[in-house]
Amino acid sequence: MSVMFLPLRLIPVPVQCVVMTTVLELVFSRDASLKPYLADLEGRVFRIHVSDTNAIMFLGFSRGKAWVHSTFDGEPNVRLAGTTAGFARMCFAHEDPDELVFQQVLKLSGDSDAMLRFKKLFAAADLDWERELRASFGDFFGTRVARAAHALVAAEQKLADGTKQMLQNNLQSMDIPDAARLQQWQAGVERFSHQISKLKGRVTRAEHRLEHLCEEKSEA
Q1: Mean pLDDT, to the nearest integer, of 66-87?
Q2: Where along the chain do its domains lie?
Q3: Which residue, 86, 76, 82, 92, is CA-closest to 41?
Q4: According to CATH, what is the number of the domain 8-164?
Q5: pLDDT per residue as tens digits for the range 181-202
Q6: What sign does the dihedral 1-59-42-78 (CA atoms) show?
C-alpha cells in the first residue's frame, strides 16, 4: 500500500506518511459504507516495509480513521514487506494482492484475522491511488507518481522477461531440456516403460510354456 515511487522515494518517510494519511482520510471519510470495516480494524496496526529503500511505516486504525506514522511504540498485528516495484504492482497495476503474496512478491505475516479484515476494507474501498493522489495533491503530482509507478512495473517485467529468455538460451546452449522437451521425454519414457511391461509379460508366458514342455518331456 506504499506510494514510494520516484520521485516520492526521494522524499523523507515522515512526509510520505502524511501523503498516505491524507489520501486514506479522503477515501474513508467520503464513503459511509466503509465505517463498519474501519470499526472492525479498531486498534490494529500494520507494519509496512519497503525493502529496497528500507522505508518503514505503520498503518493504524483508531476511532474510525486511518493513520500512517513513521514510528510506533508497540508490536504490530501484521507485517507487510516488499520492494517498491512490488507495491507498485499492487497499488497502480492493480494486481491481485493474494497472487503477489503467493508469488512471494509481497510477504505477509501476523494476525490472520487482522489480515482478513484489512483485505475486506480495501476490497470494499476499491482504492485507485492515481485518482486519489490527483484529487488530493493535484493532477501534476498524481500523474507523475502514477507514471513513475507504471514505468517501474514495466521495467521489472522487462527485466524478468529478459532474465527468462537468457536462462532459456543458456539451457539450450547447454543442451538442457526446456519444459516442452522434458514433456516429450516423459512421454517417450512412459511409452518405453509400457513396451517393457508388455515384453516382460511375453517373457513370463514363454517361461511358463517352457516349464510345461520340460515337465511333459520328463514325464515321457
Answers
A1: 92
A2: 8-164, 181-220
A3: 76
A4: 3.30.1050.10
A5: 667 667 766 776 767 677 666 6
A6: positive
What is the pTM for the complete model shown? 0.65
Query: Minimal CA–CA distance to 25: which of 60, 75, 76?
Result: 60
End-to-end CA distance of the chain: 92
As a whole number of angstroms, the distance between CA 161 and CA 140 comes to: 31
Q: Mapped to the 3 state alphabet, what secondary structure does 169-201 carry? A: HHHHHCCCCCHHHHHHHHHHHHHHHHHHHHHHH
Which stretch of 54-68, 70-84, 115-129 has the lowest confidence by average pLDDT? 115-129
* Residue corresponding to grid cell 484529487: 135
Please give, one letter per residue, the 3-state secondary structure of 69-91.
ECCCCCCCCEEEEECHHHHHHHH
